[in-house]
Amino acid sequence: MKNAILFLLIVILAGCQQDNKYILNGSFDGPQNEEWIYMVKFPGNYNDRDSAKIENGKFVFTGIIDTPQVYYMHYQMDKIIGVNTFFLEPGTLNATINLDNWDLNSKVEGGKLNDEYNKFLAERLEKFLNSIFELQRKAANARKDRLKEINDSISMLWSADFNFSMNYIKNNSNSLAALHSFYMLYNGCTVDETSQILSQFHPSLHNTLLYKKILDENQERIERREKANSISLTNETKIVKSDFKGAPVFETIIKQNPNKVLYVDFWATWCGPCKQEFPSSKKLYEEIDTTKISMIYLCISSEEENWKQTIKLEGLKGQHFFIDDEVMKKLENDYNLKIPGIPRYIIIGKDGKIVNEDAPRPSSEETKKLLIQLSS
Q: Where is the composition biased (Basic and acidic residues) (predicted)?
């Protein structure tokens, strides 16, 4: 009798394992020159990843998975190029890898979540992203009189894409694919909006690593807000209210800083490399003669609430201006500037003319020397 029960348990367990088994078949569309391909579980501990050998352009991952999980697939162990998101779930999955354009042309198909996510991405591409990419290519070589029109169109499309994505997320609150999409977008929401949307996800998702990571990161944002509200600004930190209506941006700032050299920092609250320069910026402020040199911070593409919090938390001395998208486009047009990425630094001389529109960073030894030389 005992042997019969034991045999029955073994059969049941074996059946459960078969139900939870996955097979991920993959192939390369185009040439490949590596022996291995890798997949790693969210949030991406690359020291703990699975590998599959590539033979004749084919590879296979197999294993057991109890519940669907977010995974990343990548190529080349050292460089970690071509990171692609997919959902590892029981059943047979098929991956097609294209190294020429991994992000857009590589995908994993099969399974409810992958099919749902691929459909969502395909709709975004068709409705918004393909047009955005094409306009960005045009903007890179556009004449000044066309640049504003192109940038306006790009901004409108990004806004429409965000709204489309948020509608998908809210209408699929029981989906891990929708939760992952929210993880990619939630920094565009306020902390209160993020908390509200998180609360609407199905309880079955609350124990996932993805949900917990968004929850923890949003809690950090809440704590940052509370801490910022308790900090008072010093006299050397000035948040300047100006809508820049009519007059060019730099002209307005120059009038407030007559006969001074201006070191202008373009940054955003979400920009990691921008924030990495802040300790050097604070050190630079203490080493310059602020009666001759002004440090100007122009925050772009950010939430105004987050802007004020960051200024307080970082203790950035200098003059701070909040630049919305409309003002930023006007600034680029007025001064024939192209700022493709941040952080970006500009130096304006005592005569009010731009001396260097791609100045060295605060961490560079050349920056202080250049500012002192121009101010003498």
A: 357-369
From the candidates 16, 189, 274, 299, which is the catalytic residue?
A: 274
For the chain, the farthest-separated pair of C-alpha atoms sits apart, in whole angstroms, at 98
Question: What value does the mean pLDDT of the chain take?
Answer: 84
Lowest mean pLDDT among 81-85, 210-214, 347-351: 81-85
List 344's β-bridge partners, or say none. 266
If you search the block for the tokens 């791609």, which residue do you land on? 358
The helix/strand/coil state of 35 is coil
- What superfamily does domain 237-375 belong to in CATH? Glutaredoxin (3.40.30.10)
What are the tens digits of pLDDT across the range 107-121? 899 999 999 999 999
**How far is it, in rounded angstroms, from Cα 118 to Cα 181?**
12
| Burial label, 185 (beta-carbon count in 10 A; 0-12, 13-18, 19+) | middle
CA distances from 166 to 16, 85, 98, 142 (A): 36, 19, 29, 32
- On the question of pLDDT at 65 being above 70, the answer is yes
What percent of the chain shows pLDDT beyond 70? Answer: 86
Handedness of CA 304, 305, 306, 309 (dihedral sign): positive
From 16, 189, 271, 299, the catalytic residue:
271
Extended beta strands in 124-270, E state: 237-239, 261-267
pLDDT, tens digit (0-9, with 9 covering 90-100), for 157-178: 888 898 999 999 999 999 999 9
Span 78-98, mean pLDDT? 80
Q: How far from chain centre, in Å, is Cα 328?
A: 20
299 noted as active-site residue: no
Radius of gyration over every alpha carbon of the chain, rounded to an integer in angstroms: 26
Q: Strands 107-109 and 293-300: what pairing?
A: unpaired
Contacts of 278 (CB under 8 A, 6+ apart): 314, 316
Is the pLDDT at 100 greater than 90, yes or no? no
Dihedral angle sign, alpha carbons of residues 299, 155, 334, 240: negative
pLDDT digits (tens, 9 = 90+) for 226-238: 877 776 666 677 7
Classify domain 16-106 at the CATH topology level: Immunoglobulin-like (2.60.40)
**348: number of CA atoms within 13 Å, CB side?**
21
Q: Is the peptide bond before 43 cis (omega within 30 degrees of 0)?
A: yes
